[in-house]
Design brief:
Blueprint: H1 13-22, E1 35-43, H2 52-66, E2 70-78, H3 82-91, E3 98-101, H4 105-109, H5 116-119, H6 128-133, E4 135-136, E5 139-140, E6 143-149, E7 151-155, H7 156-161, H8 171-182, E8 187-190, H9 198-207, H10 225-239, H11 252-260, E9 264-269, H12 273-280, E10 288-291, E11 305-312, H13 321-331, H14 334-344, E12 347-348, H15 351-357, H16 364-369, H17 382-392, H18 401-415
Parallel strand pairs: 1-2, 1-3, 8-9
Antiparallel strand pairs: 3-11, 4-5, 6-11, 6-12, 7-9, 7-10
Length: 416
């Protein structure tokens, strides 16, 4: 979720051809009374058995039965590569009709997208906190499709072995507990500041000290005193040996897998960590739990909430608008939202689906955190800022936090 947004670079020929094949330019355009829609979606699966391709092709087949004149071609792209590949496709004017993944604001700025109200009958059913995030200059273009929130996962067996009797509430608790776990030969706290999702891990720690990427007025505050102090703390946490070595080179998914193997005591995670734990076959459901994330002086009252968006491209004028609307109305039914969430351990984006899952023992605690969730900045400058965060913020825990954060702040101010 909130996926890799690197600067547009030359991708492999295979990647470009893959999206070119999905483009609705040229041979894939509609013919006669029939319509062909091309959907490019991020793959959230952990392998062939639960690839997102299977999910979307199932919806496409059901939809085609109900609407024989409309065919939906499905292409899924590795979650980590989605943004780069879509950007390359758009740059080459090979537009998909519908995308489901991350990142919409630059395309809205360029006038390439339909508004939500133009391609969905009931956009009011989308969760308000994320609908607002999907807006650009007062109009909604990004349609939240799947959401997630963050909690602190910890290994109860390692806690017991280390003599820890309760979940950490503060940063001091985190450090003390992590060092006790380290003394037992395991990694105390997993700190993924590598390129996969450093922007998310960083924000969780910023929030713990009253910081953020922006303040309430919308001013960039990346190098604020609070954030510098946060990374000074993390630098000390790393140097103490409480984390894995070199967090700036460690990606979230890799550390999640180590947690699932019982090698890490604590790590910040989302519901997407649960299937990794289940597939690891090392930790039973009673061996781990999740709780609110510890802040400097107490647990976070609001955590990071993220969502991935559907975007509908104005591909070939308005000739496909009605077909896109039919498909999105179909795909956003509660049964498909719930199916997606249970398959990939993510959260719904519609109010009706969230209500149906509120009492679910797995999803309930995460859904409870969503209404107060904090999101990433939604303006177009965030694309460049996020890339720099992913590439450099890990060096703040081994070098000079003030300098590293100041460089990112300069990028944000220059873009704004």
């Amino acid at each position: 979720m909130n996926r890799r947004l690197a600067a547009i670079t030359a991708l492999s020929a295979a990647a470009a051809l893959a999206l070119s094949a999905c483009s609705s330019s040229g041979s894939s355009s509609s013919s006669g009374s029939s319509k062909t829609l091309n959907l490019v979606a991020a793959d959230y699966g952990t392998g062939p058995a639960n690839s997102s391709t299977k999910y979307w092709k199932g919806i496409a087949a059901d939809f085609h039965k109900a609407n024989p004149s409309i065919t939906v071609n499905v292409k899924t792209v590795n979650w980590n590569d989605f943004d780069n590949q879509i950007q390359t496709s758009v740059q080459n004017h090979q537009y998909p009709d519908i995308t489901e993944g991350d990142y919409f604001s630059n395309y809205a700025q360029e006038g390439l997208l339909y508004k939500a109200s133009e391609v969905m009958s009931n956009p009011g059913n989308l969760m308000p906190v994320f609908s607002k995030l999907g807006s650009y200059k007062g109009s909604q273009y990004g349609l939240p499709f799947t959401t997630s929130s963050r909690t602190l996962f910890y290994n109860k067996k390692l806690f017991q072995a280390a003599g820890i009797t309760s979940a950490p509430q503060t940063w001091d608790d985190v450090k003390a507990d992590a060092l006790k776990i380290k003394a037992k030969g395991k990694i105390g706290f997993g700190l993924p500041l590598g390129s996969e999702e450093a922007q998310g891990e960083s924000l969780l720690w910023m929030l713990g000290n009253g910081g953020n990427y922006k303040d309430a007025s919308g001013t960039w505050t990346i190098d604020s005193a609070q954030n510098v102090a946060t990374f000074d703390y993390l630098k000390g946490l790393v140097s103490s040996g409480a984390t894995e070595p070199n967090p700036g080179t460690k990606n979230r998914t890799d550390l999640w897998k180590q947690f699932a193997q019982g090698e890490i005591g604590m790590i910040n995670g989302s519901p997407a960590l649960i299937p990794i734990i289940e597939q690891g076959k090392v930790l039973s459901s009673s061996d781990w739990t999740s709780v609110p994330i510890a802040g400097k002086s107490g647990p976070l009252q609001s955590t990071l909430g993220v969502c991935d968006f559907v975007a509908a491209f104005k591909n070939g004028g308005t000739s496909k608008q009605a077909a896109i609307k039919k498909f999105l109305d179909f795909a956003y039914q509660d049964k498909y939202q719930v199916q997606f969430d249970k398959e990939y351990k993510l959260l719904p984006a519609t109010t009706s689906a969230a209500t149906s899952l509120a009492s679910d023992p797995v999803f309930g605690p995460f859904l409870k955190a969503l209404p107060k969730a904090v999101q990433y900045p939604s303006d177009t400058v965030w694309a460049n800022v996020k890339t720099q965060v992913q590439q450099t913020i890990g060096t703040a825990v081994t070098g000079d936090p003030k300098q590293v954060l100041g460089n990112i702040q300069a990028t944000a101010k220059k873009g704004g």
